[in-house]
Write a structure and sequence with these properties.
The chain is mainly beta. The chain has three helices and 18 strands. A hairpin with a 2-residue loop joins strand 16 and strand 17.
């Protein structure tokens, strides 16, 4: 509720500045080239129609629940739309505000709700390749983790992102990046977070979690380019991290599993792009893959609504997974893509009955999903996508058809590599 109120307040304050720019020419721009006070705004509208063969809850048994996953409800959906304002505070400091506007979950309320996704300032003026960001932002621990939903090549996030972060790793904190002065792209990043966002939670210290990442990339001739990265995220001394288990549609929450202990995630990612003579507008191919491994050690308490608990068990959680995808643009406005998701879960504890009640005990089923999509972009900032999923995250197979429309109004910066 606090995030909704805050996001609504920010959106209200920024609306005048936003809509004065909506009819401006849409161009890519660099914040360093803008004059101080030159603010720009954009609205990204997303609409979805979803059809499913199975009406069961889309849950991954054995994965701790939480984060910002919004699920796939059947029918016509408002989607994940965004209100964005960017500008310069000074010649060396820029700012960005992003409010996400989504359709509220059916079991919560009708209508739409707002979330403050980003509110940060950043500077590249520290010198020696150093850049600093402060505020609320997406973590850069993985390749997709820092990217917005409308940048994705599929209508939904990979299963491993849903399981690890609930779609995105996001938080309030500081980010320091170093870009080496070399011919090959080489960047190192570090992040400190001070909030209780999943997959961390309450901690005994002021710092709730830390993250490190490194990226290296370059070109091979004029036709090929590549990027590879590694990341590490950890949170120590987590206290009472809440999960969403037992809060199903039509059911009252009686007991909530809470994790206390240490958690760490390691990841590796790789990206390859091909375009004939470097001209990606005509034809191009993109191959992308990421792998995540999480290890948690501590205890699980089943907490009653009044805060009391009698059931507890030790907990050693091990979850890993990967996805691999290929996107081919065969004509200037047409793309086709395939993706495979695969998860492995192996959690143990002193009382398996409690783990099963907390939905942290794997059923022995291997969660996986296969997806295929076709999209058409009539113009640079408009896209229509048709996607089919064979979703086997649970033992009950779910065939999903997703029709998605995305359109961007106003000034919109270039997407990262």
């Amino acid at each position: 509720m606090n995030k909704t109120i805050l996001a609504t307040a920010v959106a209200s304050l920024l609306t005048p500045a936003l809509f004065t720019t909506l009819h401006a020419k849409t161009t890519n721009y660099s914040s360093a080239s803008q004059n101080s006070g030159n603010w720009k705004g954009s609205v990204i509208i997303e609409g979805n129609y979803i059809d499913r063969s199975n009406t069961d809850e889309l849950e991954i048994s054995g994965m701790p629940s939480g984060g910002h996953a919004h699920g796939l409800d059947e029918g016509l959906q408002f989607g994940h739309s965004e209100l964005v304002v960017t500008g310069n505070i000074s010649d060396s400091i820029s700012a960005r505000f992003t409010a996400a506007i989504i359709q509220a979950a059916e079991e919560e309320e009708d209508g739409i709700e707002a979330e403050l996704e980003e509110a940060f300032i950043e500077t590249q003026a520290l010198g020696n390749g150093l850049g600093l960001k402060a505020g609320r932002f997406f973590s850069d621990v993985g390749y997709l983790s820092s990217k917005h939903n409308h940048e994705a090549d599929f209508a939904d996030q990979p299963l491993i992102y849903e399981g690890m972060f609930g779609e995105h790793a996001i938080g309030d904190g500081l980010q320091l990046n170093y870009l080496a002065n070399t011919d090959m792209f080489l960047q190192f990043g570090s992040e400190l977070f001070f909030d209780e966002e999943f997959p961390s939670g309450k901690t005994k210290g002021a710092i709730s979690s830390v993250a490190l990442n490194a990226k290296v990339g370059g070109d091979i001739g004029t036709n090929h380019s590549w990027l590879a990265g590694i990341g590490h995220w950890r949170a120590d001394n987590i206290t009472d991290r809440s999960g969403g288990a037992h809060e199903h549609e039509g059911e009252a929450a009686t007991e909530t599993p809470r994790f206390s202990g240490d958690s760490q995630i390691n990841t590796i990612n790789a990206l390859y792009k091909w375009a004939p003579n470097g001209n990606a507008k005509e034809r191009n191919l993109k191959l992308q893959a990421e792998y995540f491994h999480r290890k948690e050690k501590g205890r699980i308490d089943m907490v009653e609504a009044d805060g009391s608990f009698e059931e507890t068990t030790s907990y050693n959680g091990t979850q890993s997974g990967w996805y691999a995808q290929a996107i081919y643009q065969f004509r200037p406005q047409w793309r086709v893509g395939i993706r495979h998701d695969h998860l492995n879960i192996s959690n143990t504890g002193s009382d398996e009955e409690i783990l099963e009640e907390a939905e942290l005990l794997s059923s022995g089923h291997t969660p996986k999903r296969n997806s295929i999509m076709l999209d058409y972009s009539p113009r640079e900032y408009s896209r229509l996508r048709l996607q089919f999923n064979r979703d086997e995250r649970s033992e009950n197979k779910d065939d999903q058809i997703i029709l998605q429309y995305i359109h961007s109004f106003g000034a919109h910066g270039a997407h990262s590599f």
